[in-house]
Amino acid sequence: MADGDLGQGTGLPEEPIAAPSDAAREAAAASPTAPAAATAPAAEATVAEAAGDKRRSKGLLIGGIAVVVVLIIGVIGVVIATRDDGGGDGGDRGAVGNVAQGIYVTNYMGKPISPDIPARPEVAGLFLRYAWSDLQPTATTWDWSLLDGDFAAAKANGKGVILAIGAGDATPAWVFKAGGGTAQGVDFTIVAGGGAAANCNPMTIPLPWDPAYQATLEIMIKGVKAHLVSTGYLAQVVQVKITGINQSTVELRLPTGDGTVRAKSGCPESNAIATWQSMGYKPSVLVAAYQKIALLWKYHFNTQQLATPVIPSDSFPDLDDNSQPIKRDLALDQIVRWSIANLGPNFGVNYAALRDSVGTPLDVYKPLGAKIGYQASEKETSQPLCPGIVVEKSHPTTTCDPAYFQRVAANGVAHFASWIEIFENTLRAYGPQVASANQAVINNPNA
Fold first, then answer.
1. What is the distance between the alpha carbons of residues 174 and 152, in angstroms, rounded to a whole number?
2. Cα 254 from Cα 272, distance rounded (Å)
3. Which residues is 102 bridged to in the sheet?
4. CA 237 to CA 56: how far, in whole Å?
């Protein structure tokens, strides 16, 4: 699927799928394979709806006004189910705002933000990425040292935080059956860069629609939220990425190779298409799995903006609901449209390939109500600190080029950017230009 050609989704649910009940969230089904019927999951009662049921039963005891009472309670139930301060474990709207606005500097997953970055006045905040396996090394232990260090620096400098916790190959080994857990793992060998990499990258990722995996993922989500509340760091969080269906980054994607690419060393990639066919992959099953996972994030991070990072092409296997090959994936556009309709008015979608060219594949979602974000490529903007080598064809410069970064930022502003993520070296290379871009994004009339 080419960039900018996401297609028109069909078959989206007309009503939001309810957040899972406590009992449902604790249950893990014995079989992780895809359901035979390719349908969205049955709606399960939210906490608010359960309360509404009790109130309705009382209303039925009241003679002539029973119907009126039921109708009123139904309306209240809907309001409660969608209000921002739900979630059952308390909310904190945060001192630095409720949505991401401006320029955010990112770390590399598994590494701390550099000490000089949080105090930089040119940016609005930090985009902090962590591997699930680093935060929860065993089923019963947590390691908050990396997260706490970054958040303490953010808080001390008044910086907002975009938070992302990678799953995919960053899922702890103990989650899987092979490591003593209950979730089904799927093994792949990935070749990066279309064969440009020297070696293959073996990985085990979770089966997204496995109920045991979803239950374990929620334990992580709940644990992270509880820690942020107890430390007071939740106030810094302006956005949380919806993760859980990942490969080796926090972007929404699954392996899609057909086994024809080989690394420079000669090792072949996996035939992911054949693997997914054997696992019962269907676009409708994947969409339903995403919906369940997204609602877990919404339930627990009920006062923060939610956003899904996407790769507009080659995100998912090109298979239909009969597991037969098709020309392009059907799931991504359905996922984004469902998210816009069901994850709150500030739901964001972001694309990690902002360049200086005109147009982006996210333009189609702005009229639907999505907040739009981007990530500028470090390779194209600073190549760390512009060491005098040619980068990509779109920008064959041999030196640091402030004008190029300005064009990149201007392209984001023109295409509805509410926030833009950059790397540390981009900030170091173009401090004044980043400061100007930060204000332009914050005040973007197109956002």
1. 29
2. 9
3. 419
4. 37
